[in-house]
Amino acid sequence: MEGRRRSKGLKMKFGAHVSTAGGLSKAVARGQEIGCEAIQIFGSSPQDWAFKPVPREQIELFKQGLVAGIGPVFLHAIYLINLGAPSKDTLQKGRLANQLHGPGGRYRCDGRNSPSGSHGGRGFKTVLPQVVEAIKVVLDSSPDGPCLAVENMVGMGQHIGAKFDESGAILKAVDSPRLKTCLDTRHSFAAGYDLTDSQGIQAMLDELDEGADSANVAAIHANDSKRVCGSGVDRHDNIDGFIGEEGFTAIMGHPAFAEVPFLLDVPGFEGKGPDQQNIDILKKIRTRVGLSS
């Protein structure tokens, strides 16, 4: 992916969603403390439409911190975005949020991960033209370079993109090299995709884009599951849940993901969010599947 920064000799990068509390510049140090090689952050409060501009000095300090070698860096969109909303006002806010917060040119970010929202009972095919048009507006109005990565959803209720054929249909209709997929392992597992073996993983990728490789996957939200496959329930777990180390060995060993960053958003073994213990588990698996050099 254009702009992606990698440590010399390292193919697959691991990181986490880290807090920007106290200032954007603190995010890099928090990532370093737990062994991150890549990070994800919120560009603003995830539960608020309002966007408070980040002071220029904070942005510069953030960029300086990245010199230490952490990257790629992704912004996560606010939770309120719903590209399938029947309300024009909500839809416009969703577009605006994606434009103002990214995909991240000012923060030197590689991309922006965003939910797609819900069709509200109208059905995916009904809202597809609206979703496609909204994404095109976002891409046309955003800086060149960073990608927009639409996250697959968990499958509860009326989510858009819970099935990868829907994600694939959006990618095909938008037809832009800057539109990618952010693959959430927990959401995939909850939606019924068995990620514990290579055949299940390949079936998921085939559904996305008929034999897809890593080209359409910009990032992976590496989260385990507190519930069984197909539960339709979004309960994140540390890397010791129903997917487990065996499942993540299959995921990380699949050639499609050899150079895709894995970003943790797990509760942490002490309940304080993504931690070094989870990152160390992923690094151990990386060594096992031969992607450390």
> What is the assigned CATH homologous superfamily?
Divalent-metal-dependent TIM barrel enzymes
Number of domains: 1
Largest sheet entry? 8 strands, parallel, barrel
CATH class group: Alpha Beta
Order of secondary-structure elements: EHEHEHEHEHEHHEEEHEH
Uncertain runs: 1-9
Estimate the helix proportion, in percent.
25-40%
**CATH architecture annotation:** Alpha-Beta Barrel
Which strand order do you get reading across the main beta sheet?
1-2-3-4-5-6-7-10
The helix count comes to: 9
Tell me the distance between the termini.
Answer: 19 Å
Which fold name corresponds to the CATH topology? TIM Barrel
User: If you compute it from the alpha carbons, what radius of gyration comes out, rounded to the nearest whole angstrom?
Assistant: 18 Å
Would you tell me the overall average pLDDT? 87
The percent range for strand residues is: 5-15%
How many β-strands, per DSSP?
10
The shape, in one word, is globular
Query: SS-based structural class?
Result: alpha/beta
Task: Summarize it.
Helices cover 34% and strands 14% of the residues. It is an alpha/beta fold and 293 residues long. The chain is globular and about 45 Å long.
